[in-house]
Amino acid sequence: MPERLDPRFDLSFTLNGAPVDTATTTSTTLADLLRERRDGRGTRLACERAVCGACTVLVDDVPRASCSVFAFEVEGRDVRTVEGLSDGGELSPVQAAFADNSAFQCGFCTAGMILLTEALLARDPDPDNATIRDWISSNICRCTGYSLILEAVRDAARRKREAAE
Amino acid sequence: MSALPPLRNIGRTDRRVDAAEKVSGRAAYTTDIDLPGMLHAKVLRSPHGHARIRSIDASAARAMPGVHAVLTREETAAIPMPVYGYFIKDQPIVATDKVRYEGDIVAAVAAEDEGTANRALAAIRVEYEPLPMVTDLETASDADAPELFEDAPAGIVPAYGQGASGELRPRKNVCYRFSYETGPADAFAECDHVFEDVFHFSRMHHFHLEPFVCVADWSREDRIELWTSCQNPFPVRKEIARIFGIAENRIAVRVPYIGGGFGSKNGCKTEPVALALSRLAGRPVRFCLTLEEGFLTNTQHAAILKVKTGVMADGTLVARESEILLDSGAYSDGSPLVAEKAGYRIPGPYRYRHIKTDCYCVMTNTAPAGPFRGFGGTQTSWACESQIDMIAHRLGIDPCEMRRKNLIDLGEPFVPGESGMDSDLREGLDLVVRELGYRRRGELEDDGPIKRGMGLAIGFKDGGGVNKPALARVKVSTSGDIFLQCGTAEIGQGAHTALSAVVAERLGADRSRVRYMPVDTDHTPFDQGTNASSAISVMGQAVDRAALAARRQILDFAADMLDCPADELDLVDWEIRRGNEAHPLAPMVMGHFGGTGWEFVGEGFHKAENSHAAPLEAPCVFWEIGWGGAQVAVDTETGQVTVEKLFVTGDAGRAIHPLACRGQDEGAALMGLSQALFERMIYDGARLVNGDALTYRVPLADDLPEDFRSVTQEQGHGPGPFGAKGMGEGGMLPVASAVANAIYDAVGVRLTKLPLTPERVLAALAEKEDV
Amino acid sequence: MYEVAQAGLIAASYRDIPPFPVIAPESVDDAVAAMADAEGPVPYAGGTDLCGAVREGKPIGTLVWLKRLGELRGVYVDGGALSIGALTTHAEGAVAGATTAIPGLAEAWSKLGKMRIRLSGTAGGNLMARHTRYEMSILLTVLGGTAHFASADGVAALTPAEIWDRAEPPRSLLTRLSIPLATGLRLDYDRSLRPLMTQALALWRDGGGKARGRTVIATEYLPPVALDLDLSGSEAKGIAAAAFEALPADFADPASGNGWLCRAGAAVLARQLARQEAARA
């Protein structure tokens, strides 16, 4: 990024492994930029003040509330959203664990929870229960009572470890 | 619990039908609807809790570039009936003469984008004349109290049966009263003891993550298309037809996946504003509230419950009289319906000779209250299950034994004219006692100032709604592909999965062969709404009948083709089985109907039969019971309550999808725990103090008790398909009282106000020391 | 004593703001110059709070994006003080070696916010959000620290209380937090009653070797209040009770009354003192 950015500028970043070049404005949030794309509605907006985490995406593998990240901040960076997790229609181990454990209900927090879990397991492939709880406490789920989500995270860790062996 | 026969699609914990879409982000919600030429709506809200509107000048807003429509009382004057509500039509689309709460909608703008709409709103000048406010339930009807509605809004009182009655505006600032009475009032005279206690219930916001949102397209005069995050599209269609004077067959209401509701998304919310703007602008309009605006749109009912109970010395309950004040906020919304239920449920699952209740909807200058998970049952379970414990302790009886003694038996009517109890209540209670280790609570060790105790409670409500009709259609194509059309919205509860499983089971198919068709009032058969835990218990029966009707047609057709009696035939994987023979259906269908094929169509209907003997005009569909138990540690120096164990159990009758049932019970239980300990809307007079995601505390994963478990019972007595009962609200009902009862067990103080804050615990402890 | 925001009359969002120029300075000097010269400069780091602030009405003229100021990142011991770069994230600060210079600080810092926030939220952003739900101000207050601002007019050091009063120089940039490393300084941070109440205890020895202590209490609606401890007594409960006698009578909020804050605060403080005594022994 140059030292000064005009209100309207061209943005380049990597989205789910593919390059994106787009004209946007400095006040555009990453969430709005993603949601304007045809395949970007999986990033969901709820509280729009970085509290609930429904809009969580990974920016260089760091989970961020995309409602509170300006699009210009991802210049040259690697952004991963829920759309980028499944491989040719095959669910990722984390997605499959959430699906198999019914770790969702209304589904509005689910993408954020899954990306949070991806970030956790990238840092700690075998997290203990306290660590899982600590991480999952970053985001709000109003439906499940969390128990099934915590089980899904443990299951996802197991699946990922088994796949790596 | 008896073992149930294994079934192909029932009782399986495979992936829900919405799993792949939801974990991959592909699931579409109303927030995702984007129409060509779509405008964005924003509204101007009142800064006053109560004020007369002297003038509104929106001329600058109208002149702004990018603004396509401005809606004020000037424009709504041309709408045939610009007010809405369930029983009482008192909520204007935008304010007319007065504003009645902070956040009341005064004007709306549709513009090219949200920013332009907000800038236009900022240019609207409103002159207010502030009025005195009503915020206290107990003084709202005093002679000197200000009045929210000087003139009576139009309203109805529905037909009630044996012992029940309702009244509009029974007194000042009360929009509705529900009363119920059965048995001789002189029963109190025979009682050894009469206890009167008062309970206060706090107010929560639903905090559904998907905001209130709709997209309305009324760009053509004779056609409305509406996508909305709404739990009851057919009643909303009817309400829109009435408001705007347009025929129901000109209105299509479509409901994509709903991102949570917990009751709030019943009835008109965003729709009237969006439609009025769309008509003015001649363009589609999206109206999406912020989460903060959600707090100003719908809430739970705070309540004061006065309960008088007569009892014999041995603990036998005899009589209960109650007076309940519900804080209904500034507009009636669903309050009269909640009053019916609170008034009806206050006895709890016990046997009495005399019951009398009066429940009042008190209007205050706060956000409108409406349906909320539990629907009056949370309020009454809090009071009822606290008082049962209090009485047991006063009589020197174990609270568990006191309950056991008075519980309604399996099959026994709740009150005269009602349906029989469809769960063995003692079986559930015994399960909690066992799982919690309740009998050994005397052995719990204290830890210096930390004292431990256990409490039980049985939450209770009538489930399945009142007088709810439901219609469903099942179609099967030539190749055996199954279409399920019904109006139950997928709001997270797993209705698509459960109802598809029922259809698949009846048609001898895998659940994957069933597609749950999108809800669209133009094509979907009528349904009263997705609420009252009615999906499996009411719609489930309609769907089951539709599937059985389709099955009957298919078997009759095959019997004709094979020239044999239909009862010799079975349907498995789109083949007709007759003994050891298998006859594929597709060629049979084409052989008869021709190469273009055919669809078998079955319809099913369900409604509880009307009965004037039943207090609510139809007997209850099923009884939703939430048994719960808690172990707490009370810090006697700070007052802090830590729930160390929480166990809840519901009776699904038959669990169609056990993981979905578990998720419903656990989600409900955590909401109950949150209400018990901390979650509440805090008002400073008429002003909401914590109406945003940062300051309004909802439970996070680290708020879960260390030991948090649920068990889904399958007692098998439900009215739904395969013996199923409804789920989803029961788990919330017992939690607050179980925690309060556990606190009493631990430290001997009784808290009667929610939430059970450390401050209240410490004050109660100090009071006990003083006595 | 607390402020209640009026109901959202207009539901503001980022979508309301016209696009603005962004400046991404490479050095603190450049950043200070940008703050001085730009129109309506708003410093921006982790990003977690600007969203909420904008929706509460904060305008953005020019965004001064601090991402490149690596020199404002990190924790180190500088002479007799612990210096915390304003852009240090909570996750970095909690594991930084220098943080251990104050026993108890790393543990406390590791609990701030939730994981998603800890990974991007910064020490400076937390302080400058001036949100009573946030905790950096509590830590800085109890440890007797200051916040250092740079502007075209020079540098200034402010106490946390002065930050609540918005007394920082105009067009200035928070560069670092500084905590004097008094002899034996240690921290006991108690979050068990959050969000209703948070309590911090700092203990140290003065120049004469005398034991000194300070406690800080804050609530979700009230900024921190510091109470000095008289440690001449030996009994923890007595010291705690005496300290809380000085809690202002109007220290109360919509969630909790003064009486409970006093009693529970004293109870927690007594435990903290006993805990520290046990740890020392």
Summarize this entry quickly:
Chain A is an alpha+beta fold and 165 residues long. In chain A, 33% of the residues lie in helices and 18% in strands. The longest helix of chain A is centred in the C-terminal third of the chain and has 18 residues, at 147-164.
Features:
heterotrimer, B: 771 residues, alpha+beta, Aldehyde Oxidoreductase, domain 3, Aldehyde Oxidoreductase, domain 4, 3 domains, eight-stranded mixed sheet, six-stranded mixed sheet, 17 helices, C: 281 residues, Uridine Diphospho-n-acetylenolpyruvylglucosamine Reductase, domain 3, Enolase-like, domain 1, five-stranded antiparallel sheet, four-stranded antiparallel sheet, 12 strands, globular
Protein architecture, described:
The complex is a heterotrimer of chains A (165), B (771) and C (281). Chain A is an alpha+beta fold and 165 residues long. Chain A has five helices and six strands; from the N terminus they run βββαβββαααα. Chain A has a five-stranded mixed beta sheet with strand order 3-2-6-4-5, covered by helices on one side. In chain A, β4 and β5 (62-65) form a beta hairpin. Chain B has three domains: 33-133 and 207-295, Aldehyde oxidase/xanthine dehydrogenase, a/b hammerhead (Aldehyde Oxidoreductase, domain 3); 303-405 and 415-465 and 614-770, Aldehyde Oxidoreductase, domain 4 (2-Layer Sandwich); 468-606, Aldehyde Oxidoreductase, domain 4 (2-Layer Sandwich). The two termini of chain B are 48 Å apart. In chain B, α9 packs across α10, α9 (377-395) runs parallel beside α16 (735-747) and α12 packs parallel to α13. Chain B is an alpha+beta fold and 771 residues long. Chain C has three domains: 15-65; 70-180, 2-Layer Sandwich (Uridine Diphospho-n-acetylenolpyruvylglucosamine Reductase, domain 3), CATH 3.30.465.10; 184-280, 2-Layer Sandwich (Enolase-like, domain 1), CATH 3.30.390. Chain C contains ten helices and twelve strands. In chain C, the strands form three sheets. Chain C has a five-stranded antiparallel beta sheet. A four-stranded antiparallel beta sheet of chain C has the order 9-10-11-12, sandwiched between helices. In chain C, β9 (183-190) and β10 (198-205) form a beta hairpin. The longest helix of chain C has 23 residues, at 258-280. The model of chain C has no long low-confidence stretch (mean pLDDT 94).
